[in-house]
Amino acid sequence: MATSPAAIANIQKKVWAGSLPLEIRLASADCRTYDETDPYLINVPRLSYLAFLLPRLHTFFSPQLIDPSIPFHNAWLSFENVALKYHYPIGLLYDLFSGAAPSNPEDDGTEDVEELLPWKLVLRYSEFPDEQLMGLDGEGKVLKDCFVNAVKEADVIRNGKGNVYMGLSKDDSDNLWQAVQDHNLAKFNTVHNKLLNPPGTPLRNIPIKIYLPTTAPTLSSGSGEAEPVQASIRTVQGLVAPFSVTPEYTWNGAQRDTADRVP
């Protein structure tokens, strides 16, 4: 039985209504005072992006910055010393690093989720991690380009060609990005529905993107050598063991192949 349009719309509304409380503090290396500054507390949509917060974070922490003249787009955010990618949705970042499944196999999973909230992040301006993050610009063009490229990729996979997005008017393409910035579902669907249901173009595939977590930082061990620290990553579901072919011998000694799961 096919899912009704009303049920699909209701699911979409619930997904868009998802939010996440954040507690953001200024890194001590960028603070002009020895005392810890007050945190910036905010509840953000899970489908939004950290880069959208940078202007207001910069305004809030400017009085405590060692260099208040530094541009807001030079800032970056981290969780437990791991740089957070700007073009990943905030909810995805939280799920990768603080999600529901235990990160330690010996963890029984009884940790109260409330202890993880608000999600505690650090705002930094110095030692920008060029190898992990892309540099941003003051007009938001870099982040917009990342979003547009992702939409184009999905368009090609979904329809077998990318001319559906390319056929949008400039107003439609601008409104789609503005809807993401404003977290406006109605405005978003006005354009999104044109991408999902182009006239005369049947749906060929469903685009799926697999996100990989950031690698753990390299720290110095007690011996003075730099060693990578095992990442603490949360997963929605563990890896499913693939099938492999293992030899099995018949009653007459002939070898045959059987498919068994890897233990």
From TrEMBL:
Extract the Pfam families matched here: ATG5_HBR, ATG5_UblA
Q: Which GO terms describe its cellular component?
A: Atg12-Atg5-Atg16 complex; autophagosome; mitochondria-associated endoplasmic reticulum membrane contact site; phagophore; phagophore assembly site membrane
Annotated compartments = Preautophagosomal structure membrane
InterPro entries referenced in this protein's UniProt entry, alphabetically: Atg5 (IPR007239), ATG5_HBR (IPR048940), Atg5_HR (IPR042526), ATG5_UblA (IPR048939), Atg5_UblA_dom_sf (IPR042527)
Keyword Secreted set for record: no
State the Gene Ontology BP annotations.
autophagy of mitochondrion; cellular response to nitrogen starvation; piecemeal microautophagy of the nucleus
Q: Which domain of life is it from?
A: Eukaryota
Q: What is its main location?
A: membrane
Assigned keywords, A-Z: Autophagy, Isopeptide bond, Ubl conjugation
- Topology versus the membrane: Peripheral membrane protein
Stretches assigned to the Autophagy protein ATG5 UblA domain: 15-124
* Annotated ranges, domain Autophagy protein ATG5 alpha-helical bundle region: 141-197
Under Gene Ontology molecular function, one entry of this record is: Atg8-family ligase activity
- Into which family does the record put it? Belongs to the ATG5 family.
Name of protein: Autophagy protein 5
Q: Please tell me the species this chain comes from.
A: Aureobasidium melanogenum
